[in-house]
UniProtKB/TrEMBL annotation:
Region of interest (Disordered), ranges: 1-22, 35-83, 98-125, 142-168, 187-251, 279-354
Annotated Gly residues bias: 152-161
Top-level taxon of origin: Eukaryota
UniProt keyword Chloroplast present: no
Protein known as: Uncharacterized protein
Amino acid composition bias (Polar residues), ranges on this chain: 98-108
Pfam families in alphabetical order: DUF4078
Composition-biased stretches (Basic and acidic residues): 187-197, 217-251, 289-301, 310-354
Organism: Aspergillus saccharolyticus JOP 1030-1
GO cellular component: nucleus
Record's compositionally biased regions (Acidic residues): 198-208
Residue stretches of biased makeup (Low complexity): 40-55
Amino acid sequence: NLYGHHPRKKPDNNTGPPSASTLAFTTTLSNLIARRDPQTLSATATPSTSAKVSTGRPRPSKHTTHDKDAIFARPNRGAQKRAARDLLIEDDDHRDTAMSQVHRQSSELGGKVDEAVLQRSKRRMQEKARVYEDLKRGLYLGAGESDSDEGVGNGGGAGEEGVGEGERYLRRLRRKEREGLVDFDRKWADTQLHDDLSGEEGEGDGDDASIVSYEDELGRTRRGTRAEAAEAARLKGANEDGAEAGERWRPRRPENLIYGVTVQSQAFQPDVRMADLAKRRDRSVTPPEETHYDADAEVRNRGTGFYAFAKDEDTRRKQMEELRAAREETQREREEKSQKRAKREEARNQRMMKVEELRSKRRAEMFLAGLGDVG
């Protein structure tokens, strides 16, 4: 080598024994091939290759394709229960809203989506898009003055007559919001009613089956069992409590509102205004009092060039005159010094010019003297 570099040594693969990873890979590959197509392996195998294939128990491997398939084939914990619950929710008509989502796997669909499922999914996505648009526009979903529980319970028939399309749309959104929320008061009332009914069942089951007259939540007199009467009373009490709660939390209208054309006589008081104008008119035309800076109000005696003037006007005027005279004297002395400095500079320049002329004359004489010696 011209540059003195030693040639690289080529590794000899045939000298050393095969590593454990190579043997494991060969064994795993042969087992996979034998498991996949044993007939092809037996037909194409030679005596040498068949002798190399191990007939013992295959070595377990953690990275085989079969194990991965087994992992993904097993469903997650609780997935089947959730799928069954989604199917139950789907069968319920009153829960078929945009908030109830049903998740299905591709194996359940059979590779093809049903037309009804597709249309239902499109309808839910459109409903979600409308909800998002309403949120972006900031539509207020709170109950209005005309949105009462009776109108909601009647399905929007008589309560929505003479109402615009926008108000009806907001009422539908409010109803959906109420259905999606949890009414803890109603849950508590249901629990109490269930406890009462369970306690009465021990006394006698024939009382619930007896027919009685009761008044439902709409004010109609009906006949039914005691259980139905108790349920109607519970619904009526819940509606009354909801109406009272709405009235309690609704903002109270101010009592001092003005209706119609009204002259507000108290907004303008002429006596006070005229007194102010008279005070301004009768004010004498006198010069304002002279006010000066109070040096004692702040600690500024440590500042550079600070001068505390006296509070007396005569003394203050005398101090101002002294300062003005000192200023004029200082300016006059500065001008005199600057004039003297200019004269000195001019005299020095003249001397420098004379010295330069003498030097030039001396150089010329020396040059001429040198020329005479040469001739």
